[in-house]
Every structure is written in C-alpha cells, then in structure tokens.
Amino acid sequence: MNAGHELVEQVYAAKTDTEAADSLIRRYMGFIRAETAKYIHRAPVEGQDEELSIVLLAFYEAILGYEKNRGAFLSYASRGIRSRIIDYYRKEKKHAKVTSLHEPVQDDGNETWKINQLENPENEIEKSHHTSATRDEIQEYEKKLQEFGISFSDVADNCPRQERTLQACRRVLSAARENPGLLDELLRTKKLPMAALSEISKTDKKTMERHRKYLVAVLLAFTNGYEIIRGHLYHLTGNRENSDT
User: 45-59, 63-77, 142-156, 207-221: which range is least confident on average?
Assistant: First the structure.
C-alpha cells in the first residue's frame, strides 16, 4: 500500500474514532505548524499564536469533510486551512483597534500599512496578537459534548445534508431558542425534548431523531455562548451536499 492510500485510510478511520483523529493530528503536527508558519512567516508558538489554533481546527474539519473524490488529503486540508485563516483575518479586521491599523509593516522590502494589507481579502500573512480563545473554547465545548455522549465526529456525521432537512432543523433550533424552558430541560435531563419541539416547530419527530446529535450540539453552543463554535457548525452543515439517509 502506498503512502497516499494509507493516509486516506487513516483519515477515514479518524472520521468516526476520536482517538484515531487525535493520533492523526499528532502525526501531522509538523504539517500543521508548517501551514501556520506560511501565514505568520515564522515558527508558531503554542499558546501565543491564534493562527495555530485556527489551523488545528481547520485540519480537524478537513478530516471530517474529506472524501476520496476531493483529491489528495493534504492538498484538501491546505485549501481548508487557507479559507479558515482568511475568514479569521476578515473577522479581525472588523474588530481591530484603529491605532493598530496604522502600524508600519514590511512588505517585500517596502514599508506599507496594516490597513492596506487587511483590505485585500486574499491576504494571508497578517499577524494576530489575540489570546488563545479559540483553542480554549473548542476544548470547553468538547467536554460539554462528552457530557451528552457526543463527539465532534458525531456532529459532522449527523449534519443535515438536504436543504429541506436543514430548514426543518432550523425550525427546531428556533423553537428551542424561543422557549428557554426547553433549553433548561435539555441541560437538566441531557435529553432533547422531542415532543414539545416537534409540536412547536411542526417538525416530524423522525427527522429530529435522525439529526438529534446535531441539534443537541448546536443548542449547547447557543446555551453556553460558544460564538466561534456556532460558526463552525453552520459551516460544516453548509458544505454537506449528499442526500440524507
């Protein structure tokens, strides 16, 4: 078996096995750090460079979303990482302090300005000095999911794939958020209040049961205020194009 086929098998195993996913991430930390270095132009420092956390999450997302027809896995992962980093810099641009936007930086030997670099949506080298909030949020959220017997791979596998199913799930989520008592019940019993949500949202219980883990995961994200996680959950949902089973 050649190295490419072996990696594909490892990725597929990691989709449903969290230990296999952790092992694969550890095995490719060199790749992850190298990808991070492309955007900050130096070796990343754990706990200091937010980009490293972003790349780690993007690599894990690549594991969950990869299919054989999408080409070589590492190339696929690299594209996903690039997209995540660009999204991150766009978000940071919106929240950057005015004073920091006028600090000079070096660009091919010429002095330029951060605000000019950030105006380019394809920019991939702007440094961030924010804390490791993303990494901390992911770890906290993973622990919360485990309390409900759910893993990240469960959530990815359980995402609705058809538009009509996605709309049905959104009705359920809206119903739950508009009725705080149902959210309290979810947290107290660790069970999705199927009957009440089905009646309020006019959604079939079978549909809810098929996507129960996804619904619980998103509701937990809203309940605990995981803003970054919510964005990633919807990103995963929007990229699932196959038919529901």
Answer: 142-156
